[in-house]
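Hi U.,

Before I forget, here's the chain from the pilot set. I'm dumping it here mostly so it's searchable later in email.
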Amino acid sequence: MLEKHSTIEPKGWNKEEIKAENKELITRIAELQRVLYADGSKSLLLILQGVDASGKDGTVRRIFSGVNPLGCRVYGFKKPTEEEFAHDFLWRIHKVTPANGMIHIFNRSQYEDILVPTVLGTHPKKVIEQRYEQINQFEKLLEASGTKIVKCYLHISKEEQLERLTERIENPLKYWKHNDGDWSSRKQWDNYMKVYEEIFKKCNDIPWNIIPSDKNWVKVNFIAKLIVKALESMDLKWPDLDSETFKKR
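Structure:
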């Protein structure tokens, strides 16, 4: 599946035109987020998955640069802590899903609890297979409760990842991004791709969006459009005045 998807911009795209459109989309997201917060009846969950250096942090920084911080939260999921290991695998996820009126962004997500255990072989196959359906049911529960879910896989080429990881050890301004573990994970590239293929196949009730991400301006355009579409589909409204005193004036 992934090999059929390009990691670069569609043919005929003009960089300057798309970047101008991106500014409009980011402004539109900020406008819609304010109505979402005021309306208070629905919420949005953006799930960002991708290999190391696929640009998850940059996506959040650019697309949500104009939103009101009161109505937006970002959560990153790494190796579970000792407390998290003591609960079911969705415990740490469920407790930070968005309340009505909120946008929450997951930088990695519940899918890490399929990806990593499968590649490293730390869990029995039976447990992993159960997690696919448990995640499907979990996401259906969220959507039935008023949370719109947008799932994005940031699709970069192996060559682009190498460039980005190399920059982290050559550019002093990016030393802070370096993690030796990223290079170890890169050696398992093919295995991670196989697991992602299974995830796209088995957890697509709420569909995945494969985002070409070798170029940031392309990635931002695709994801921003999905967010605008999701927010506009909610039929959000500014609330009426809730005051008996001033309604009589």
